[in-house]
Design a protein that fits this description.
The protein folds into 3 domains: 6-112, Rossmann fold, CATH 3.40.50.2300; 141-213; 222-392, 2-Layer Sandwich (Heat Shock Protein 90), CATH 3.30.565. Helix content is 47%, strand content 20%. It is built from 10 helices and 15 strands.
């Protein structure tokens, strides 16, 4: 039972019966109960509305009102306080009727003992708590679905005007219709175009997250040449790494089979993880992408950085959507916090998993592992314990 006192509301129009119940409670060992007594059904509704009780013991006969009617009325008014019907009649029909109107249990006065009373109360409270948790989970799930639907709608509506901004700014920066006359205008147009592209990328990420949450994400799979694809991905990220003065290294096993996956989502995972690693690595540091495959290890992509690292207690937050480990408004590193959780979800969509290990001031290692069955070639690459061939990007 709970360590804090359990508040019990006893509803009985007979004081002798209340005294009997009170004395039975006093026989219960190691449990504290605070009893309140009311004699009429009219008092019950007001007491339950104004005070919190953990359980209610309700007599079957309350003068002109039946305890069954009272319980039914409480349930119709939305009360979920555990109610145990107590009666001097041993009729099975009353037991069944009590269940029908919403009683949590049924006890005969002649059979009340301290052990049975304690047990019935404990199970009735536990039963209601389970129902409350289930309702809370259902409400949370419904809110999550509504949130995902809202995000999908908003991001879809934002894409149309944003595409116009990007398209027209590109025409201006490229001076398609003729020279602008001042180089500053070209610079401004280029800034608008780049900002629009960044915003479009964020919108796409939010849309992907909402699709995954809503169960609408689909895979369009085909065989991927890993060597060629990884080289192209590293070439994309290398520009950002060079600007940040971060060395970007690539270590790929020499003999790799094709990977059967969704090409766009696969690229999205690696680009997100590499960009993240570069963003959180200080100038002079390095980011390494290692790739290998094995019949036991599956297909493995490992991103290792020498960045600022993440405290162990903050890792769950880093893997949750729309959260930042550095959550201050003036945080040093901007972003939606979608890179890691989105990558994790996309990997899991392929039947794989993403693991994150990190230490503050040392760096972070993110390991993405696809199932061995997604290696579609006739041979497998190096085993997990073999040293991959080293190549520099």
């Amino acid at each position: 039972m709970n360590s804090s006192p359990i508040r019990v509301l006893v509803v009985d129009d007979d004081e002798d019966d209340f005294i009997l119940i009170r004395d039975t409670f006093r026989e219960i060992q190691d449990c504290q109960y605070l009893l309140s007594w009311v004699e009429t059904a009219d008092e019950v509704v007001g007491r339950l509305a104004s005070e919190k009780f953990d359980v209610c013991l309700c007599d079957y006969r309350l003068g002109p009102v039946s305890g069954l009617d009272l319980i039914k009325d409480l349930r119709e008014k939305g009360s979920d306080c555990p109610v145990i019907l107590v009666t001097g009649d041993s009729q099975r029909e009353i037991d069944l009727a009590a269940t029908d109107v919403g009683a949590n249990d049924y006890m005969e006065k002649s059979g009340i003992s301290s052990d049975r009373l304690e047990r019935v109360i404990r199970f009735s409270i536990a039963q209601v708590e389970r129902r409350r948790r289930k309702r809370t989970e259902e409400v949370a799930e419904e809110i999550s679905k509504l949130k995902s639907a809202f995000l999908a709608m908003v991001t879809h509506e934002l894409r149309t005007p944003l595409n116009a901004v990007i398209g027209f700014s590109q025409l201006i920066k490229d001076q398609t219709l003729g020279p602008l006359g001042d180089a500053t205008y070209v610079e401004y147009a280029n800034n608008i175009y780049n900002s629009g592209q960044n915003l479009l990328g964020l919108i796409d990420d939010v849309l992907d997250v909402s699709k995954i949450d809503f169960g609408e994400a689909q895979l369009h799979e085909e065989s991927i040449d890993v060597h060629e694809t990884v080289q192209s991905i590293v070439a994309i990220v290398a520009v950002r790494a060079q600007e940040a003065d971060v060395a970007l290294l690539l270590e790929v096993a020499g003999d790799l089979p094709p990977l059967y996956a969704d090409p766009r989502k696969f690229k999205q995972v690696l680009i997100n993880l590499l960009n993240n690693a570069v963003k959180f690595t200080l100038p002079g540091g390095k980011v390494t992408l290692k790739v290998w495959a094995g019949s036991d290890s599956g297909y493995v992509f490992q991103i290792i950085d020498t960045g600022i690292g993440i405290a162990f207690s903050d890792i769950p937050k880093a893997l949750a959507p729309f959260q930042q480990v550095d959550s201050d408004l003036n945080r040093q590193f901007e972003g939606t916090g979608l890179g890691l959780p989105l990558s994790k979800s996309l990997v899991e969509l392929h039947g794989g998993y993403l693991d994150l290990q990190s230490e503050v001031g040392v760096g972070t290692t993110v390991t993405v592992r696809f199932p061995a069955g997604r290696g579609t070639g006739s041979t497998v690459g190096t085993q997990a314990n073999e040293q991959p061939e080293r190549k520099s990007a």
